[in-house]
Amino acid sequence: MTDAAGTFAGSPPERSRGFTPVQYLVCLKGILLREWLRYLSQKERFVSSLVRPLLWLFIFAAGFRQVLGVSIIPPYETYVLYEVYITPGLCGMILLFSGMQSSLSMVYDREMGNMRILLVSPFPRWYLLVSKLLAGVAVSLLQVYAFLAIAWFWDVKAPLEGYLLILPALFFSGLMLGALGMLLSSLVKQLENFAGIMNFVIFPMYFASSALYPLWRVQEASPLLYKICILNPFTYAVELIRFAFYGRIEWTSLAVVLAVTLALLGGAILAYNPARGLTVRKQDMGGSQ
Amino acid sequence: MKLQSRLTETSKNEERAATAALELASVSYSYGQRKALDNVSFSIEPARFTVLLGLNGAGKTTLFSLVSHLFSPRAGRIRVFGQDINRNSGPALRRLGIVFQARTLDLDLSVRQNLLYHASLHGIGTRVARQRIDELLQSIDMADRIEEKVRGLSGGQVRRVEIIRALLHRPSLLLLDEATVGLDIKSRATILKDIRALVQENGISVLWATHLIDEVGQADQVLVLDKGRLVADGRVSAILSETGAETINQAFSKLTGITDMNVRGGKS
């Protein structure tokens, strides 16, 4: 590095200008690429993200279908196998886990100091956070399609065009759950506390929803649980995906998912705002003071 | 006439603010009850090597977090080449290169991938970035490690890659927080020498935070931080004559009441 100066000498400091739209894209691309490379470098993450829903599909659904009969409810026009019923819920589950996982990686990044590198970028902070969110969603969409491909061979099939039509539904649901994860990541102070998120966020959201059983069944069993289910935004994500499989838009679900996404994202951006943010309470952002 | 003179004064002040590489005016910050920084003001001239000296816990990292806009100060203003870091954070951050105390490279990614990621965070396209990465890596004799995962590098190599990363977007002000912590004597000396060369030959301003007194050079501007307060600001010779000490080590003891900094603060 002694002769480093020679090289550096040809590089006078650059003047600051505003960023061009192309540079915004360069930034987004870089964040997407890093998320993807990190995902590839963690093979166990890929495997577990596939195994989890497949266990539900192969084992739980196979056993449970004898117990629970699903009557004809929209969007289904005939009786469907229980496996078919829970597939949209399992897509939602992948997005839910993935959203929490990327927030886990944000907490990890913060502990390791990587978060600083993102946050000291001169791009607007909201843009950095939205890019980070999009990167997480992109990776989780791939997981969903990998799962659906395997399910297809297990004879769990939807109309072919349904696989294309669910893309926007998956995207918005992924965005909502990713934004939830991002908000949570700003609240969780340490990695150890993250186990709590699994118990207090993922499981309640998943079970108290229409992912595993139709809501009319829940209503029969417990009116209180039914109320919880219809207050749970995850229910709407699942229904949005379910209807999209059959080429239908569930408008209520779409509205709820979009509204909740905006609220959570706004909260997350606020939480990462240096002036008002919750991060100021943390003494440690990857170094001692 | 009065107005006229006031105007000239303001423009003079602005000019001074614009020329300072870094200017802090009455900056305070606290974590709950504990004051981490208490009314700190100083400015750093362009193209100079400035040492920020203080023990662990003196407030160095808090100061860096404020300058790099990770938090906002509760009171006071921070300007980087005249740009307010809170009101105009984009342009200010573009002129800043930062090497944090904590290791911030992604261990599972290669050197190239890490550096390209950083370049994209500054809007630098792949083609230009690759060229700069090659040049910079060659300059530190690490061109052959470009595809290697960061996990496989030594501590000194990681640090040098981090310094290169901070230089990729060609900043005018480089901040380094305890850059030599945990390194062996040889790596420490090389890094310090190279950073000094950057100042001399490229006119980059450097703020070098450390708790190691032996890293202070005779011609440096020194800022001494003690329990969140700035207790000295000036050239080594000025600080020596002010405190009536013979060495900077003695001066530091007098200023902070701590006897041997290198030992007491020698945590890695």
Report on the architecture of this protein:
The complex is a heterodimer of chains A (289) and B (268). Chain A is mainly alpha-helical and 289 residues long. Helix content of chain A is 72%, strand content 0%. Chain A is built from twelve helices and no strands. Chain A has helices spanning 4-9, 21-41, 43-64, 82-112, 114-119, 125-153, 160-187, 194-207, 215-221, 223-231, 233-245, 251-271. In chain A, helix 3 (43-64) packs across helix 6, helix 4 (82-112) runs parallel beside helix 7 (160-187) and helix 7 runs parallel beside helix 12 (251-271). By secondary structure, chain B is an alpha/beta fold. Helices cover 41% and strands 23% of the residues of chain B. Chain B has a six-stranded mixed beta sheet, sandwiched between helices. In chain B, helix 4 crosses helix 5, helix 4 (111-121) packs parallel to helix 6 and helix 8 (236-243) crosses helix 9 (248-256). Mean pLDDT of chain B is 86; it is low at 1-12 and 263-268. Chains A and B meet through helix 1, helix 2 and helix 5 of A and helix 2, helix 3, helix 4, helix 5 and helix 7 of B.
Output the keywords.
A: mainly alpha; 0% strand; disordered N terminus; B: 268 residues; alpha/beta; Rossmann fold; four-stranded antiparallel beta sheet; 10 strands; globular; disordered C terminus
Integer-rounded radius of gyration of chain B:
19 Å
**Which architecture name of the largest domain in chain B does CATH use?**
3-Layer(aba) Sandwich
Rg over CA atoms of chain A: 21 Å
Largest interface: A-B, 56 and 71 residues
Beta-strand content of chain B: 15-25%
Unreliable sequence segments of chain B: 1-12, 263-268
Distance between the termini of chain B: 58 Å
Q: Give the total of domains of chain A.
A: 1
Provide a count of the helices of chain B.
Answer: 10
Largest sheet of chain B: 6 strands, mixed
- CATH class wording of the largest domain in chain B: Alpha Beta
Secondary-structure element pattern of chain A, one letter each: HHHHHHHHHHHH
Number of helical regions of chain A: 12
Count of extended strands of chain B: 10
Strand arrangement across the biggest beta sheet of chain B: 6-7-8-3-9-10
Let me know the largest β-sheet of chain A: none
Into which percent range does the helicity of residues of chain B fall?
Answer: 40-55%
Question: Quick one: overall form of chain B?
Answer: globular
The SSE string of chain B, one letter per element, is: HEEEHEEHEHHHEHEEEHHH
Number of strands of chain A: 0
